[in-house]
Design brief:
This protein has 513 residues and is mainly alpha-helical. The chain is 79% helix and 0% strand. It has three domains: 182 residues, Growth Hormone, Chain: A (Up-down Bundle); 55 residues; 259 residues, Up-down Bundle (Growth Hormone, Chain: A), CATH 1.20.1250.20. InterPro entries: MFS, MFS_dom, MFS_trans_sf, Sugar_transporter_CS.
Length: 513
């Protein structure tokens, strides 16, 4: 294949992946502006994130099957069309409901194009060329992670939050045209029919669980509807497990979960999404709502914290992986994330940037180790003919962790703010405290302070806000530390022995965003 054609193919798969990851990061610094513009409360803002990651996580594995069966080029184009069209709908939305439905459609498009892009990359390159192509793709993802907060801040502050979606339109149209020209279609002749039962039961379970976690604070945890949603999620997940055991070639081969190393790697991936990646969304809201920074300032403040996510995976690939077992790398990465986040939690009430930066750099270094290791360690015990399935499971677990983490930690934020207000405003009417909680968690601290007058002191709103974020970061850190211990116990050091020098390039090829 000519070098020029190879470059065009890499652009066709890397730029859409860049946009997917940029869209996931760019939104974080815009959430406060979106909430004010659409008069949305914290629960509605949660869905701006969760609707996207929920459909992305639910569709990632079936999207791979669709690409294998109907053609990678065709699904890449379908994904681009859906993602681009949904981006236009997001930018034009005039209610939080319309925005959240458009974000859900955007997540479906993102899953289709990402799965098709990865399959296209694997099909189009071989040997060393494949390793270089995946390394290039990984670098592009790293740039997207770093640029997301800054780009989001610039666009939101000077053009308005709607343009964080509108910028996808010219890129999407250009990529559709380039894909039609440059990419050759390919299929997997062994691909079976879509696992409808698995898709519907897994997706339904994840949706009901997320809905219950987000709605529980507003409706009450003993509310019959909330309890029914939790029970429904458990029943559907049990149905998913049953459905997968009856498939000839299941979407998720549950036999691999009898291997402790594979379980440990997926626990690490789940905790990585729940504990760290979720914090990349909470921090920009903290900077804007708690510290009074502009969207651009919040993006710039996030930039140093994202840098290790770009640098550390290269250090792991070239220096640590040949010397350390996967067991040690996973456990160390999770331990650093946990310690860094718990350290950060102790600084939440100070509203001082420098100590938060230092503690988050510790967590980011741990996340940089986990970036590629969660997928690689799990793949070490999976046969090569099921590598696609294992990769899909890894991505789904990570993004499911973001969905569950964001909803769970949101519930903790609301509960802690409520408790702080009860301490600061004893005797204050419960209904009024509930309204204050809604204001504070939504970032409207000044309005909450004005509503309560001089009750509770001159800064009770900011104190309650800081207490809520303290609980969020402490819980996230505890999740990471528990996962570190479980990974150490489950992952076998022998099965994940240090890579030989000849395997380094293969290791780079499985690095993920």
């Amino acid at each position: 294949m000519k070098a020029s054609k190879q470059l065009l193919i890499m652009l066709c798969v890397s730029i859409p992946s860049f946009m997917i990851n940029l869209d996931g990061n760019i939104i974080a610094v815009s959430l406060s502006s979106i909430a004010r513009s659409l008069h949305a409360d914290f629960a509605a803002v949660e869905w701006v994130i969760s609707a996207y990651t929920l459909t992305f996580a639910a569709m990632l594995m079936p999207a791979g099957t669709l690409a294998d069966r109907f053609g990678r080029k065709r699904m890449l184009i379908v994904g681009l069309v859906l993602f681009t069209g949904a981006s236009a709908m997001c930018g034009a939305a005039h209610s939080d409901t319309a925005l959240n439905w458009a974000r859900a459609l955007q997540g479906v498009g993102a899953a289709l194009q990402l799965s098709a892009a990865m399959a296209t990359l694997s099909h189009s390159f071989r040997g060393l060329a494949r390793a270089r192509a995946f390394s290039f793709w990984g670098s592009v993802i790293g740039v997207a992670i770093m640029l997301g907060p800054v780009a989001g801040g610039l666009i939101t502050q000077y053009l308005g939050w709607r343009w964080i979606f509108f910028v996808n339109l010219p890129v999407g149209v250009s990529m559709i045209a380039l894909t039609l020209y440059a990419v050759e279609d390919s299929k997997d002749p062994q691909a079976k029919r879509l696992d409808i039962a698995g898709v519907t039961t897994f997706g339904g379970s994840l949706i009901l669980l997320t809905l219950a976690l987000i709605s529980g604070n507003r409706a009450g945890w003993s509310n019959h509807l909330i309890l029914a949603e939790f029970i429904g999620a458990a029943v559907l997940f049990a149905g998913f497990l049953t459905a997968e055991t009856r498939q000839v070639r299941p979407m998720v081969d549950l036999r691999f979960f009898y291997q402790p190393t594979y379980v440990g790697a997926n626990i690490a991936g789940l905790a990585y999404g729940m504990a760290f990646l979720t914090m990349l969304t909470y921090l920009p809201m903290y900077f804007q709502n708690g510290m009074g920074r502009t969207p651009l300032d919040a993006g710039l403040l996030m930039l140093p914290m994202a840098l290790p996510l770009f640098v550390i995976p290269r250090v792991v690939a070239w220096w640590l992986a040949p010397r350390c077992s996967g067991r040690l790398l996973l456990s160390t990465g999770l331990a650093l994330v946990g310690l860094g986040l718990i350290w950060t939690s102790t600084e939440m009430r100070s509203f001082a940037y420098t100590p938060i930066l230092v503690s988050m750099l510790v967590a980011s270094c741990g996340a940089g180790i986990l970036n590629g290791e969660t997928a690689r360690v799990g793949m070490t015990v999976i046969p090569s003919d099921r590598a696609g399935m294992a990769s899909g499971v890894s991505g789904t677990v990570k993004f499911s962790g973001i969905v569950i983490g964001f909803a769970t930690l949101g519930a903790i934020l609301v509960s802690r703010v409520q408790a702080s207000l009860a301490d600061a405003l004893p005797g204050y009417p419960a209904a009024a405290r509930k309204e204050l909680t809604r204001m504070i968690t939504g970032g409207n601290l000044h309005a909450a302070q004005v509503l309560a007058g001089q009750r509770g002191g001159s800064s009770f709103a900011q104190w309650s806000f800081g207490s809520g974020y303290e609980a969020v970061f402490f819980t996230a850190g505890a999740i990471a530390l528990i996962a570190a211990a479980l990974s150490w116990m489950l992952v076998d050091a022998g099965e994940t022995a240090p890579l030989g020098a000849e395997s380094i390039r293969d290791h780079i090829a499985v690095m993920e965003d």
